[in-house]
Amino acid sequence: MSQTTFEAVAEPARRRILDLLLAGERPVGALVTELMMSQPAVSRHLRVLRDAGLVTARTDAQRRLYRIEPGPFAALDGWLRPYRRMWAASLDALAEHLDTMTDDDLEEDFDDHR
After folding, report:
1. Confidence tier at 105 by pLDDT (50, 70, 90)
2. DSSP strand E in the chain: where?
3. Model pTM?
4. Model pLDDT, residue 73
5. Contacts of 67 by beta carbon, 8 Å cutoff, 6+ apart
6. Is 67 left (phi over 0), alpha (psi -120 to 50) or beta?
7. Which of 32, 47, 81, 101 lies 20 to 30 Å from 13 when distance is taken between CA atoms?
8. What residues contact 51, with CB distance under 8 A and at least 6 apart?
9. What digits encode the pLDDT tens for the residues 43-96?
């Protein structure tokens, strides 16, 4: 996994494009409409995603259809795995702590944070 992958997914508009492409391939025009962005802006974001290997395009008559390329996401998932384990352990500890609290403790904590 390259730094380009991180740079590509760091930008919120590109993450929104990826979210839309999860449902299946889409033409640029559909992305423009759904994102309410200009066509040149969407095209620039797609170029970054394509250069990072996160999406591919195919031509269908007069349209270019974009879709997610799963390979880089598998590498990203592999890199995130140890961090996920860390969060899971923290959430398990929180669940254990909450299990030891009484209803009165929970109400008191809630009142303290109002």
Report:
1. low
2. 26-27, 55-60, 63-68
3. 0.72
4. 87
5. 21, 24, 25, 26, 55, 56, 57, 58
6. beta
7. 81
8. 4, 8
9. 999 999 999 999 999 998 888 999 999 988 888 888 888 887 777 777 777 788
Name the token pair of 107.
């109400």
Bin 64: left if φ > 0, else alpha if -120 < ψ < 50, else beta.
beta
- 9-23 tens-digit pLDDT: 999 999 999 999 999
Cross-strand bridge partners of residue 27: 65
Residue 27, C-beta contacts closer than 8 angstroms, at least 6 positions apart: 60, 63, 64, 65, 66
The Cα–Cα gap between 4 and 54 comes to 10
43 burial (CB, 10 Å; 0-12 / 13-18 / 19+) is middle
